[in-house]
Amino acid sequence: MILVLNGPNLNLLGERQPNVYGNTTLEELEEMIDSWAAELGTPVSSRQSNYEGQLIEWIQQAQQEGFGGIVLNPGALTHYSYALMDAIMAQPLPVVEVHLSNIYAREEFRKTSVTAAACVAQISGLGPRGYKYAMEYLLNKR
Ligand code: DQA
To answer: Among 13, 60, 98, 135, fewest CB within 10 Å belongs to which?
Structure first.
């Protein structure tokens, strides 16, 4: 069972800088994730929060909730949240960091991810498909 977490401002997908993030809304992204999960034969739960503490609590509780891996798009928290990094390091599940945009091709501050070092991998710039590849990896498929 996979947990997909989207952080701050990702509730605005579709209307927020579509030239950078595309036209897919969060609801549509979560539907795509549901259908990929069905193809891969895994249950999935997708959650979004604008609050760092909420994301930390979901990460802390993930193993107890029965999840086997986490796909995490931390939004801008990627670039400065040591609290989120510590939360990832403090728990045993593999976490794959996903960014819709290529964070290395944008502003300087986006080129640093403090959370990626606590993750098994980072996928950046592949749009919604990054979530699919992250799930495939976590399920050890393909
Ligand atoms: C993002 C990239 C971050 O720099 C930004 O703050 C976001 C979205 C992405 O998915 O490309 O909110 O994580």
So the answer is: 60
Angle in degrees, 0-180, between the axes of helices 26-40 and 129-138, rounded to the nearest 10: 30
Domain ranges, residue 79: 2-107+125-141
Q: Return the best residue to mutate from 11, 13, 99, 131 for the ligand 1 pocket (most ligand atoms within 8 A of CB).
A: 99
Residue that has been written with the tokens 């990627």 in this structure: 78
Q: Is 79 a catalytic residue?
A: no
Taking the C-alpha atoms of residue 80 and residue 88, their distance in angstroms, rounded to an integer, is 14
The structural domain count of the chain equals: 1
- Check if 16 has its Cβ closer than 6 Å to any atom of ligand 1: no
Residue 71's CATH number: 3.40.50.9100
- Find the 16 Cα to ligand 1 centroid distance in Å: 11
Per-residue pLDDT of the chain (142 residues; tens, 9 = 90+): 999 999 999 999 999 999 999 999 999 999 999 999 999 999 999 999 999 999 999 999 999 999 999 999 999 999 999 999 999 999 999 999 999 999 999 999 999 999 999 999 999 999 999 999 999 999 985 4
